């Protein structure tokens, strides 16, 4: 919104700063961070008052989780609120990719909110039926896929860009939409599965979002794409503002979610943020790089899939408990140890993902 201030500029004054994406990204970060600090405590107080017993704790979960009973959920509202407010203030409103990512984020956030509300109001862990959530997620992903394709350069429409291999595109044709569904819905649910310990999901999401934001800025500039030999996607630079806002809002939330958490993110936050990562990957044509940058989420999701399939076939378990972070809890690792080590892994994967920009 503040981009309009450039109309007041003569090219050499303060208002000219608003032309620069990097300046507005910094503003988005600070705005979201301040939003988190200002509204975090009041939101937690409201959630605690309205929810009473807080988020239901699974009976079959790790024993150490029962001490968390009474902790309110839906803390994702703080992140989503900071993210939405900051992006609308600092991003250009004429950029279709910004609206696409916001649409996916808010839509998945709404699904998560309804799921959290059902769990809290009924005081059980069932929530919205899985098939309903999946169907709604698929519908959102289809819209996102068609939306992104419509605004991509013609040469990139329905194409899958291959990292590392220079100028290599795979024409997915009719499979582009199903592939996009896997990316968006898969990422949303993978982040949701990762959100099982205090602070575990939010930092890897922030790291992945920042990495994708840097890539978005690079592929949105002709000079950078020529130097890096990656595909140019006009308009993606504005996504950096969204990811900067996500990082700021994430820090504001982490202030209250650090062990012991004063509030849980809930599906409201995890589905929204996971959907956002998937949508950004679609926009910038780096879907496969997302699998590297978000490798932690991939492992968490695979651990559940492997556990379920193996148990159905053999009646035995591969892991002591899935997702895999619970496996390490069962092995006796302290919760902060798991969280920090998973953060470190996420940072390493982010560096590898960034390296694919130059390794050609």
UniProtKB/TrEMBL annotation:
<comment type="similarity">
    <text>Belongs to the glycosyltransferase 4 family. MraY subfamily.</text>
</comment>
<feature type="transmembrane region" description="Helical">
    <location>
        <begin position="239"/>
        <end position="256"/>
    </location>
</feature>
<keyword id="KW-0132">Cell division</keyword>
<keyword id="KW-1003">Cell membrane</keyword>
<keyword id="KW-0479">Metal-binding</keyword>
<keyword id="KW-0460">Magnesium</keyword>
<keyword id="KW-0961">Cell wall biogenesis/degradation</keyword>
<comment type="pathway">
    <text>Cell wall biogenesis; peptidoglycan biosynthesis.</text>
</comment>
<feature type="transmembrane region" description="Helical">
    <location>
        <begin position="290"/>
        <end position="311"/>
    </location>
</feature>
<feature type="transmembrane region" description="Helical">
    <location>
        <begin position="74"/>
        <end position="91"/>
    </location>
</feature>
<dbReference type="Pfam" id="PF10555">
    <property type="entry name" value="MraY_sig1"/>
</dbReference>
<feature type="transmembrane region" description="Helical">
    <location>
        <begin position="338"/>
        <end position="357"/>
    </location>
</feature>
<keyword id="KW-0573">Peptidoglycan synthesis</keyword>
<keyword id="KW-0808">Transferase</keyword>
<comment type="function">
    <text>Catalyzes the initial step of the lipid cycle reactions in the biosynthesis of the cell wall peptidoglycan: transfers peptidoglycan precursor phospho-MurNAc-pentapeptide from UDP-MurNAc-pentapeptide onto the lipid carrier undecaprenyl phosphate, yielding undecaprenyl-pyrophosphoryl-MurNAc-pentapeptide, known as lipid I.</text>
</comment>
<feature type="transmembrane region" description="Helical">
    <location>
        <begin position="172"/>
        <end position="193"/>
    </location>
</feature>
<keyword id="KW-0812">Transmembrane</keyword>
<feature type="transmembrane region" description="Helical">
    <location>
        <begin position="134"/>
        <end position="152"/>
    </location>
</feature>
<keyword id="KW-0472">Membrane</keyword>
<feature type="transmembrane region" description="Helical">
    <location>
        <begin position="200"/>
        <end position="219"/>
    </location>
</feature>
<keyword id="KW-1133">Transmembrane helix</keyword>
<dbReference type="InterPro" id="IPR018480">
    <property type="entry name" value="PNAcMuramoyl-5peptid_Trfase_CS"/>
</dbReference>
<dbReference type="InterPro" id="IPR000715">
    <property type="entry name" value="Glycosyl_transferase_4"/>
</dbReference>
<feature type="transmembrane region" description="Helical">
    <location>
        <begin position="97"/>
        <end position="114"/>
    </location>
</feature>
<feature type="transmembrane region" description="Helical">
    <location>
        <begin position="263"/>
        <end position="284"/>
    </location>
</feature>
<dbReference type="Pfam" id="PF00953">
    <property type="entry name" value="Glycos_transf_4"/>
</dbReference>
<protein>
    <recommendedName>
        <fullName>Phospho-N-acetylmuramoyl-pentapeptide-transferase</fullName>
        <ecNumber>2.7.8.13</ecNumber>
    </recommendedName>
</protein>
<keyword id="KW-0133">Cell shape</keyword>
<keyword id="KW-0131">Cell cycle</keyword>
<dbReference type="InterPro" id="IPR003524">
    <property type="entry name" value="PNAcMuramoyl-5peptid_Trfase"/>
</dbReference>
<feature type="transmembrane region" description="Helical">
    <location>
        <begin position="20"/>
        <end position="40"/>
    </location>
</feature>
């Amino acid at each position: 919104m503040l981009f309009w201030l450039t109309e007041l500029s003569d090219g050499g004054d303060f208002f000219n700063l608003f032309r620069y994406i990097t300046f507005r990204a910094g503003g988005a970060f600070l705005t979201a961070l301040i939003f988190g600090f200002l509204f975090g405590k009041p939101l937690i107080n409201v959630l605690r008052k309205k929810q009473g017993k807080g988020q239901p704790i699974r009976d079959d979960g790790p024993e150490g989780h029962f001490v968390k009973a009474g902790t309110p959920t839906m803390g994702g509202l703080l992140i989503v609120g900071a993210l939405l407010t900051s992006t609308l203030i600092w991003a250009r409103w004429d950029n279709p990719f910004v609206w696409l990512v916001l649409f996916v984020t808010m839509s998945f956030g709404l699904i998560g909110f309804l799921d959290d509300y059902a769990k809290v109001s009924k005081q059980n862990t069932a929530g919205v039926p899985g098939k309903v959530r999946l169907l709604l997620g698929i519908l959102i992903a289809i819209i996102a896929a068609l939306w992104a394709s419509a605004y991509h350069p013609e040469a990139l429409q329905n194409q899958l860009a291959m990292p590392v291999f220079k100028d290599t595109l795979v024409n997915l044709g009719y499979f582009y939409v199903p592939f996009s569904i896997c990316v968006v819905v898969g990422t949303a649910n993978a982040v949701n599965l990762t959100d099982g310990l205090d602070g575990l999901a939010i930092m890897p999401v922030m790291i992945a979002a920042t990495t994708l934001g840097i890539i978005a800025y690079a592929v949105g500039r002709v000079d950078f794409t020529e130097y890096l030999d990656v595909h140019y996607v006009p308009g993606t630079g504005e996504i950096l503002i969204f990811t900067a806002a996500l990082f700021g809002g994430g820090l504001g939330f982490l202030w209250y979610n650090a062990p012991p958490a004063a509030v849980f993110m809930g599906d409201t936050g995890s589905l929204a943020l996971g959907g956002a990562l998937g949508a950004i990957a679609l926009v910038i044509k780096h879907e496969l790089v997302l699998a590297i940058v978000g490798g932690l989420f991939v492992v968490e999701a695979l651990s559940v899939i492997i556990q379920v399939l193996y148990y159905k076939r053999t009646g035995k378990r591969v892991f002591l408990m899935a997702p895999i972070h619970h496996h390490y809890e069962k092995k006796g690792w302290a919760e902060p140890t798991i969280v920090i080590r998973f953060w470190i892994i996420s940072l390493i994967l982010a560096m590898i993902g960034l390296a694919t920009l130059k390794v050609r």
